[in-house]
Known about the structure:
Blueprint: E1 2-6, H1 10-20, E2 27-32, H2 35-45, E3 49-52, H3 61-66, E4 73-78, H4 84-89, E5 94-97, H5 102-115, H6 119-132, E6 141-146, E7 149-154, E8 158-164, E9 167-172, E10 175-179, H7 183-189, E11 195-199, E12 202-205, E13 209-214, E14 220-224, E15 229-232, H8 234-244
Parallel strand pairs: 1-2, 1-3, 3-4, 4-5
Antiparallel strand pairs: 6-7, 8-9, 8-12, 9-10, 11-12, 13-14, 14-15
Amino acid sequence: MKALIIDDEPLARAFVRACLNDYPQVSIAGECDNGFEGLKAIQQEKPDLLFLDIQMPKITGFEMLELVERPPAVIFTTAFDEYALRAFDAHAVDYLLKPFSRERFARAMEKFLDNSHSEQQKQATRAMLEEAGAHPVQGGRVVVKTGGRIRIIPWEQMLYLEAADDYVKIHTAEGVHLKNRTLGFFEQSLPVRHFVRTHRSYLINLQEITRIDPYEKDSHLAILRNGARVPVSRNGYSRLREALGL
């Protein structure tokens, strides 16, 4: 079995590496000091297990996990215990709070090895990925992957969001980006003072609206600063008026 260590602290990586010497059945596929390199290594090495820090430069461990298509099992290793409950709720194999001992590491490895080939653990990892994006605008941003490249989009740059089957199209001044989430998910997560659900398929950044024009029957169109025309349903119009104080 192969393990990958993703942590921005060299000493932390070294300690995990030393602990893994006690497990000849597990080889170290590589080490990375940030989520960008970690994602590349996961795609190349296809490890069975990740030792993953949460707070890292560029993107967090949770943000990186959102971009993984076929996730391995994960043991979180971090000094930030405020994330502990989220990690456990996310069905991680285990959670190691730094500084941790060899004995604590051994208990985490025992849990992994006991279930490493089970369908239950695979399902738990998939469930963890669902939870990993529970706060898609954590830190005021969303992380997407477009054409093999990772892009960080601050919510202020989102003009509007559009439902597209199992994805959401995030419209920005620089183009459209897909995120494997629902519009309702973003509606609950984005700042309610700045984003309004104007239609079952659209969520608009209020700061981008220049005017609201009548359309057919009881519907309207929101005209944005970039010229985009976004549908506004009858219920959406009521929500929009309330949000704008009209």
